[in-house]
Design brief:
With about 160 residues, the protein is mainly α. About 55% of the residues lie in helices and about 5% in strands. It has helices at about 5-15, 20-25, 30-40, 50-60, 60-65, 75-85, 110-125, 130-140; strands at about 90-95, 95-100. A hairpin with a 2-residue loop joins strand 1 (about 90-95) and strand 2.
Length: about 160
């Protein structure tokens, strides 16, 4: 999801207008909604200080607005939060283990099939039916080796 889409979703959640947010950012009133519209449509990328100001005005962590770095814990969890909004992905705790579940009402059938493919390939790797190299190759070339295509990975004999 783009910065602008996140900004709009959060602004609407806070029940604020573009003009209200822009004015709080100290943008002149006659330009406030135009500038915010540019940010929300991704035609203008805000500077870091503007992102900080928006996060303060909207009372959110900057990661909630910006495209987070998935190599960090906060970046990874904020990406998972985006999957909640997009696909209904949510945590489920079973016997003190946390699993991620997709809400079938929000998910697409193709996403469910893709996740099932991934699970099947991971299980095949764990059982030793395919090598780690084959498993990684499957991920890197997805969907080429997906069950939904004609070239599945050959299994070890």
């Amino acid at each position: 999801m783009s910065f602008g889409q996140r900004l709009k979703r959060i602004r609407n959640h806070r029940k604020m207008t573009m003009k209200e947010v822009g004015i709080k950012l100290h943008i002149p009133e006659r330009q406030a909604d135009i500038r915010m519209s540019q940010y929300e449509s991704d035609t203008k990328k805000p500077r870091k200080d503007i992102v900080e100001g928006l996060s303060n005005i909207l009372n959110v962590n900057e990661y909630a607005l910006d495209n987070p770095d998935i190599s960090t814990n906060y970046g990874a969890i904020f990406n998972l939060f985006e999957y909640y909004f997009t696909y209904g992905l949510h945590p489920v705790k079973i016997e003190d283990k946390v699993y991620l579940e997709v809400d079938k009402n929000l998910s697409t059938d193709s996403l469910t099939k893709s996740l099932s493919d991934w699970c099947d390939e991971y299980e095949a790797f764990q059982k030793g039916d395919i090598t780690k190299e084959q498993f990684i190759d499957w991920m890197l070339k997805y969907p080429e080796y997906s069950k939904h295509f004609a070239n599945p990975l050959p299994r070890k004999e």
